[in-house]
């Protein structure tokens, strides 16, 4: 007689991470570090620009040796000079640049918040997808247990001659199909674990029990960090364009230069005309004509501003649509739970009736196997619906611009 082998996947009990712990690990990865470095780099650049507008002090030393001494050129000469320079007015470019950097820094901060929130949402989806797959796996294992019991029962009937070989083959076929499904589920589970390893940078396991606190109705709004970042980018580009217009205006600066010269003459008839000098000057520079250079540079920056503004408006509108879809998906997820609960109740009732008739010989095993599959499928559907609503809550929180991690319990 042909033997049948039943394959069972038994979960290994390991100390796993909760969703909150997984998110903590994920938002400390190298991608987030990259965004932090970009932010710090921009801050340093801004500090450098601000320092460039402060008074500058320059020191210089010069030594010269002449091959022929004359009255105006000593045999050797050592000159020391010190100068202080400061720009009083540059047409307003300084403050436009300051504003541009400040807007850019705010944008980078929003980028950092956005990538953290996006990672948190991805990890949340992986977490609940994994638990949903575990529920499917458990339901499939229980189905196989039932099939094994029926196989052993029919095998005894076959030996007694009260059933046929084709009834046994139907059980074997169903078991083989269930084992294939288990392999597919196991592959999906391993894929999720590997994806989490890519994000966190370490091997993780998952512990059930976390949930997402629902968002209150008055908190639902669209102000995601990535949209805020685009808004600040638009403002920064506007300030960049404004800075170019300052070239139409004059630049006024002041400088003070002190020079000390030590002129050494071999010929005593020669005398140094001076040995020190201090010169204070006020300087004005005004580019009154540049063949359209300033105009074209301004228009180029302004076009970039217009382009960024259009993109911001587009993405802002899309974010509002995404938020409305997230709200709708959340409402549907709640209805799915009600439907799944009703479906499980009906499947359990049908299974008990059909099982009783089957064991009494009133119906064949085709109807019984179908009811068995429907029962465990209904269990899996309910658990999946319960996990799915957690994902939908997380998605709604994300599209409302809230920090998802703060809602994980």
Automatic annotation (TrEMBL):
Q: Where in the cell is it found?
A: Cell outer membrane
One MF term in the entry's GO annotations: efflux transmembrane transporter activity
- This protein's UniProt keywords: Cell outer membrane, Coiled coil, Membrane, Transmembrane, Transmembrane beta strand, Transport
> Which Gene3D superfamilies does its entry note?
Outer membrane efflux proteins (OEP)
Coiled-coil regions listed: 130-161
Tell me the superkingdom of the source: Bacteria
Cellular component terms (Gene Ontology): cell outer membrane; efflux pump complex
Q: Which InterPro entries match?
A: OMP_efflux, TolC-like
The UniProt family comment states:
Belongs to the outer membrane factor (OMF) (TC 1.B.17) family.
* Matching PANTHER family: OUTER MEMBRANE PROTEIN TOLC
State the name under which the record lists this protein. RND family efflux system, outer membrane channel protein, TolC family
Give the species this sequence originates from. Malaciobacter marinus
């Amino acid at each position: 007689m042909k033997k049948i082998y039943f394959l069972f996947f038994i979960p290994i009990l390991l100390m796993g991470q909760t969703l909150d712990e997984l998110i903590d690990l994920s938002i400390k990865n190298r991608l987030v570090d990259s965004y932090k470095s970009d932010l710090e780099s921009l801050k340093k650049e801004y500090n450098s620009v601000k320092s460039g507008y402060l008074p500058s002090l320059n020191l210089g030393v010069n030594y010269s040796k002449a091959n022929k001494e004359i009255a105006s050129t000593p045999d050797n000469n050592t000159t020391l000079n010190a100068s202080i320079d400061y720009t009083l007015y540059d047409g307003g470019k300084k403050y436009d640049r300051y504003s541009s950097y400040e807007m850019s820094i705010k944008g980078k901060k929003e980028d950092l918040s956005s990538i953290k929130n996006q990672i948190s949402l991805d990890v949340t989806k992986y977490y609940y997808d994994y638990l949903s797959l575990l529920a499917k796996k458990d339901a499939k294992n229980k189905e196989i247990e039932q099939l094994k019991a029926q196989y052993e029962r029919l095998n005894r009937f076959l030996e007694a001659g009260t059933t046929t070989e084709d009834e046994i083959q139907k059980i074997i076929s169903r078991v083989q199909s269930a084992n294939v499904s288990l392999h597919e589920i196991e592959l999906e589970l391993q894929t999720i674990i590997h994806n989490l390893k890519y994000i966190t940078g370490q091997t993780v396991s998952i512990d059930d029990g976390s949930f997402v606190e629902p968002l209150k109705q008055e908190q639902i709004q669209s102000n995601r960090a990535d949209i805020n970042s685009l808004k600040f980018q638009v403002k920064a580009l506007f300030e960049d364009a404004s800075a170019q217009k300052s070239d139409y205006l004059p630049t006024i600066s002041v400088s003070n230069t002190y020079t000390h010269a030590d002129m050494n003459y071999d010929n005593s008839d020669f005398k140094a005309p001076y040995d020190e000098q201090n010169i204070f000057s006020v300087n004005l520079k005004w580019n009154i004509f540049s063949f359209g250079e300033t105009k074209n540079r301004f228009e180029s920056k302004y076009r970039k501003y217009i382009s960024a503004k259009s993109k911001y408006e587009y993405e802002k509108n899309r974010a509002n649509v995404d938020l409305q879809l997230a709200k709708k998906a959340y409402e549907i997820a709640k209805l799915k739970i009600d439907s799944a609960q009703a479906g499980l109740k009906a499947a359990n009732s049908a299974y008990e009736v059909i099982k009783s008739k089957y064991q009494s010989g009133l119906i064949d095993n085709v109807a019984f196997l179908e009811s068995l599959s429907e029962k465990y499928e209904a269990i899996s559907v309910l658990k999946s619906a319960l996990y799915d609503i957690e994902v939908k809550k997380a998605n709604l929180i994300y599209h409302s611009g809230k920090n998802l991690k703060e809602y994980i319990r």
